[in-house]
Specification:
The protein is elongated. The termini are far apart. The protein is α+β, with helices and mostly antiparallel strands. It is 49% helix and 21% strand. The chain folds into 2 domains: 160 residues, Immunoglobulin-like (Sandwich); 176 residues, Up-down Bundle (Four Helix Bundle (Hemerythrin (Met), subunit A)), CATH 1.20.120.1770. Keywords: Electron transport, Heme, Iron, Membrane, Metal-binding, Signal, Transmembrane, Transmembrane helix, Transport. It is a multi-pass membrane protein.
């Protein structure tokens, strides 16, 4: 009986918790008329909500935006972009708590990196905000043109310094917090869904291509070259496998690198300097490594020793930088945990295989040396020495 009651209470708590995350349960009303907003949306990112009413008689849009800042000293904002679909150009309303009081500011956003107050191109009235239980609500009415849809952008940030909003995060949740708002209500984000999915898909393609090339194929090619050539029966098969693996890694890696450049050009103001610089270094080193194939001297050539140093040092450098950059990419993309776990599993498997082959290789090499020493010693004895 007690367990049944406990289960019922937990179930009730879960239902209440779930319903509290839905805009339909919030029942917000317009400040002056005390009537419910005509429409409400559970915004798809940053656990945010928008209630709104479009008044055709005076071309006004009354909104109530609800979001939780990342920290008690953080900020939330919502706005319309009359010139594009991104953050730059957005006419935003921001709110945050300072000294126990709620503060509202309007921002004419002209840069990703600097968020300073500015007069909006939209006429705004009935502007107010409130804060309770870690949630900030922004209320406003804006004059909009006679259109059917507008570009909306919303955001949350970690802190405020000297009255200025500090830069928000650049995780996918932050970067995707934008969409097309249909003033008539109904299904929203229908047309922007493709755009968001396209950008996310391109980032995922970039990550997968680079993880497969620098993070899997390239180390695999090094393992093939280091351990298969120990066995005479594998010659020259190991060489062609090694070259094929590294050429495939290079082609896929260059495709991933080019995708990254495209993403960077489409995200003006968003820069991951270390990730980008390592990517450029990987491309340059891998290109040098490809040239090593054409510069490869014969085994008995006097410059073969120096070629080996050049070839091996660049190869191991690519592996190290590739692994570092892949995990940097994971931090930027912030994908579901299963992706990072899977990749770690693949790398761990390659590492175990490499260790086992290293042991086998040393056993083979030591046995050959022992056999060679024995034959040489017997030969001297046969000659009476």
């Amino acid at each position: 009986m007690a367990s049944s009651i406990l289960f019922f209470l937990l179930l009730s708590f879960f239902i209440l918790k779930t319903s509290s995350q839905s805009c339909t349960s919030q029942k917000l009303t317009l400040p002056k008329t005390n009537t419910l907003y005509s429409n409400c949306i559970n915004l798809p990112y940053l656990t945010s909500f928008l209630h709104y009413t479009h008044n055709l008689s005076n071309s006004s849009l009354s909104i109530a935006f609800i979001a939780s800042p990342p920290s008690p000293s953080g900020w939330v904002s919502w706005g319309l972009n009359p010139t594009g679909t991104g953050m730059v150009g957005t006419q935003a309303i921001a709110a945050y708590t300072q000294d126990g009081k709620i503060t509202i500011k309007t921002l004419d956003i002209q840069s990703y990196k600097v968020l300073v107050p500015g007069k909006l191109s939209y006429e705004v009235w009935n502007l107010s905000a409130e804060q309770s239980d870690g949630v900030i609500r922004i209320f406003a009415t804006l004059k909009v043109k006679e259109v059917n849809e507008v570009n909306q952008v919303w955001q949350v940030g970690p802190s405020v310094s000297n009255g200025r909003l500090d830069i928000h995060g650049f995780q996918p949740q932050n970067l995707n917090s934008k969409g097309i708002l249909k003033l008539s209500g109904g299904q929203n984000f229908s047309s922007v869904g493709t755009m968001v999915d396209s950008k996310t898909r391109n980032r995922n393609i970039h990550g997968i291509l680079n993880a497969v090339s620098w993070g899997v194929l390239f180390p695999l090619g090094v393992i093939i070259a280091r351990y298969m050539r120990t066995f005479p029966s594998a010659d020259p098969a190991w060489f062609y496998l090694h070259v094929g693996c590294q050429l495939s890694a290079y082609v896929i890696g260059v495709a991933g690198w080019a995708t990254g450049l495209k993403l960077g050009s489409n995200s003006v103001g968003i820069t991951y300097s270390l990730h980008r610089n390592i990517g450029i270094a990987l491309f340059a080193l891998a290109t040098l490594q490809i040239f090593a194939l054409f510069l490869r001297p014969k085994k008995d050539h006097k410059y073969r020793y120096f070629w080996n140093i050049y070839h091996h040092s660049i190869g191991y450098t690519i592996i190290i930088l590739g692994l570092i950059n892949i995990f940097k990419g994971f931090d930027i993309l912030n994908p579901e945990k299963i992706w990072k776990t899977t990749y770690i599993g693949v790398i761990a498997a390659l590492g175990v295989i490499a260790v086992l082959l290293e042991v086998v290789t040393w056993i083979v090499v030591l046995k050959r040396k022992a056999n060679k020493s024995t034959k040489t010693f017997d030969g001297y004895n046969n000659n009476g020495q």
